[in-house]
Specification:
The protein has a single domain, classed as Creatine Amidinohydrolase (Alpha-Beta Complex). Helix content is about 30%, strand content about 25%. The chain has 4 helices and 15 strands. The strands form 4 sheets. The chain has a 5-stranded antiparallel sheet. Strands 1, 2, 4 and 5 form a 4-stranded antiparallel sheet that branches. α1 runs antiparallel to α2 and α3 runs antiparallel to α4. The longest helix has 24 residues. The protein binds magnesium ion (2 copies). The site of one magnesium ion has 5 residues, from loops.
Length: about 250
């Protein structure tokens, strides 16, 4: 069941989103060769707490950290730890914040040290971000849910990359994961009609190679089956009476 949010509820999610964006900024400032992913997690935890919010991932089904940090062939749900980041590593960071019981969820992929190690890698990240923008542009009254995934898939496959099937976006509100699931692929014009009050986390996950994934023995870290590089971008967006409002933007 899709839970529609009142304007007051969307404001609480927007507050969570602003705190998340500020935390993301702090963590990105700390990303450099030689830093560990645990150190980035500590920055996120401290900043989120100092902002009066709660980091939503910590304790979620036993997840031990405040952010997910996934490197290179790791797609999502990487556990921060003692891994030391190197120049040119492809780092996906996923953030969640809760303000007064309402969630915001957002992810970004960057190159450690700033420069892409190859043209293909640079294109992968650029296309994944463009796919997110294409998905967000479909959040409009009267549209249908599958328009979002269709737009994402067009951009990704048009660039020759793979769209991950096993993990999808989701509704969001008082829970991090609510209905509806939002696949990053499919035919347009299907599924529920998009209505004001819907809050959605749209999150394309894109691979340089095949889109099949597997989970490592830590029961969390998702990697590409073929070891290819992958990228992940995510924003939380609300559809209001005045149109789409991205709640986790800068
Ligand atoms: Mg996320
Ligand atoms: Mg999400």
């Amino acid at each position: 069941m899709i839970i529609l949010k009142s304007p007051d509820e969307i404001e609480k999610m927007a507050r969570a989103g602003r705190i998340l964006a500020s935390t993301r900024h702090q963590v990105l400032e700390a990303v450099r060769p030689g830093v560990t992913t645990a150190e980035l997690d500590a920055v996120a935890e401290e900043h989120t707490r100092a902002s009066g919010a709660v980091a939503s991932f910590k304790g979620y089904r036993g997840f031990p950290a405040s952010i997910c940090a996934s490197v290179n062939e790791e797609l999502v749900h990487g556990i921060p730890g003692e891994r030391v980041l190197k120049e040119g590593d492809l780092l996906s960071l996923d953030f969640g914040a809760i303000w007064e019981g309402y969630h915001a969820d957002s992810a970004i992929t960057v190159f450690v040290g700033g420069a892409a190690p190859s043209g293909e890698a640079e294109k992968l990240v650029r296309v994944t971000e463009e796919a997110l923008e294409a998905g967000l542009s479909q959040v409009r009254e009267g549209g249908r849910l599958s328009d979002i995934g269709h737009a994402v898939q067009q951009v990704v496959e048009g660039a020759g990359f793979g769209v991950v099937r096993e993990y999808v976006g989701h509704g969001i509100g008082q829970s991090m994961h609510e209905d509806p699931p939002i696949p990053n692929y499919g035919e347009p014009g299907r599924g529920p009609e998009l209505r004001p009050g819907m809050a959605l986390a749209i999150e394309p996950m894109v691979t340089l190679g095949d889109w099949a994934t597997r989970v490592l023995d830590d029961d969390w870290t998702v990697v590409t089956e073929d070891g290819s590089l992958c990228a992940h971008f995510e924003h939380t967006v609300a559809l209001t009476g005045d149109g789409a409002r991205v709640l986790t933007g800068d």
